[in-house]
Amino acid sequence: MSPTLPSIEHRDAVFVSHANPEDNAIATWLTLRLTREGYRVWCDVVKLRGGDDFWKNIEAAIRLRTRRFIFVTSRVSNQKPGTLKELAIAEGVARTLGENRFIIPVKVDDLPYGEHNIQIN
């Protein structure tokens, strides 16, 4: 395992990746629900503020704090460059950590399973 990445045991957050703004409502609901259940959640709709270096913050959260990465799978997130960047980073972290259950897809619309991004398949 890479010495620069904390082990899975030293990570404290569930990261919610989603298409912004298209899937904000479901991402907010999921974030609040997980928080209520006691999880520490990182989601841009509740963590980022105007003026933040959002890509730097997102990348650091995925690489250093994320224990599980929830990918809100929708027709939009399946193709949007930003969510696919997050997914690519998460896939690299999962490989480095040897965690085959690191990425958890959550299907939220009628996107056929056969059309899911190759990284989710």
TrEMBL record:
InterPro entries for this protein: TIR_dom, Toll_tir_struct_dom_sf
A single GO BP: signal transduction
SUPFAM superfamilies according to UniProt: Toll/Interleukin receptor TIR domain
Pfam families named among the record's database cross-references: TIR_2
TIR domain segment(s): 10-121
UniProt-recorded name of the protein: TIR domain-containing protein
Originating species: Mucisphaera calidilacus
Upper classification of the organism: Bacteria, Pseudomonadati, Planctomycetota, Phycisphaerae, Phycisphaerales
